[in-house]
Specification:
3 copies of one chain form a homotrimer. By secondary structure, chain A is an alpha+beta fold. Chain A has 3 helices and 8 strands. Chain A has a single domain, classed as Sandwich (Jelly Rolls). Helices cover 23% and strands 37% of the residues of chain A. The model of chain A has no long low-confidence stretch (mean pLDDT 96). Chains in contact: A-B, A-C, B-C. At the A-B interface, strand 4, helix 2 and strand 5 of A face strand 3, helix 3 and strand 8 of B.
Chain lengths: 135, 135, 135
């Protein structure tokens, strides 16, 4: 059995938060056995991964607006590609999350969802799902 | 042996940083054997976990004030529950931390402490402690 | 085989982002076998670790300037040591990162680099590299 799976996500806008938990269970469920840690990461530098509320979409919309206020798209950046704000937001949010797995189930809280955080879309993104085992 | 333990933390104020290392050693010490990673997470969306200085409480008090300045409690948020600031702060801080374990001991630096970061208290919070093994 | 390695990094300025991937492969390569997670952490409270673009140094220079704008070195801090900004930046960036390892290779994206994030240099810093195994 391979120890990791890759998912493909196509984003539609510059800033977008794409729920991943259902897809991880469906497409990487074979990894989720026993106890350990589920690791969800992206090999990108202008998109990240976070865990937060998946119930009311206004929450992540507010998150996107606060991040845009803190790190505006246009400012006095030197990076010639023009997307420095997306790099900064990715560092603030992080490039991966880890979650406990118990008896093959991801221990997500009642309101928690795993999000791919797109900050420089639309793009085609890769999500890497890896499992680490408890002793 | 179970691969994870749950701790209960009762917070007293809206923003509060609760030290966890001593409680993890006392209540989840059975997990800490051999080499690997200690994972400390919360199943919540308005509280997070971080590692920083545990010696001078002024440090985390300053952290709380800077976060409040960057993400004020009252602003133009859409989320009807009124606690969007707590969600944003949780994403900035993160919902989990991982630390090396060597010979059954958490490799915390001299000044490091593990904190539950309450951003929407007072509440009753759960901390999940999980161990992953080195090869 | 030990499950972790320590690297020493001497920083030269207050804010500095030091690439680590080549040094990890050279000095901790013995840890990188099979499948699992690579964990890179620091035992410090005024330096962190992040993953972002290693190709154009203007990216991390922009990151450093945005963090300085959000969390200025001088402000109304109480912590007597005067480096509260470095503590806050460390919490925003995080004290560790985890990356997938597959067949002994770190799964870094094409533009990704692992950085020690110095926020209170120059100092002598320690980086701890740990491996956790997939089931």
């Amino acid at each position: 059995m391979a120890a990791s799976r890759r998912l493909r996500v196509e984003t539609q806008s510059r800033t977008q938060f794409v729920p991943l938990a259902a897809r991880i269970r469906a497409e990487a469920g074979a990894l989720l056995s026993g106890d350990g840690l589920l690791h969800v990461s992206v090999p990108h530098t202008t998109a990240g991964v976070c865990v937060n509320e998946g119930y009311d979409p206004d929450v992540m919309a507010d998150v996107g607006r606060v991040l845009e206020r803190l790190v505006p798209w246009k400012a006095d950046y030197r990076h010639a590609e023009g997307n420095s704000a997306a790099h900064v937001k990715t560092i603030l949010v992080g490039s991966s999350v880890s979650l406990p797995v118990r008896g093959g189930a991801i221990e997500l809280g009642q309101w928690q969802e795993i999000f791919l955080c797109e900050f420089d879309g639309p793009r085609s993104r890769t999500v890497i799902v890896t499992m680490a085992a408890s002793p």
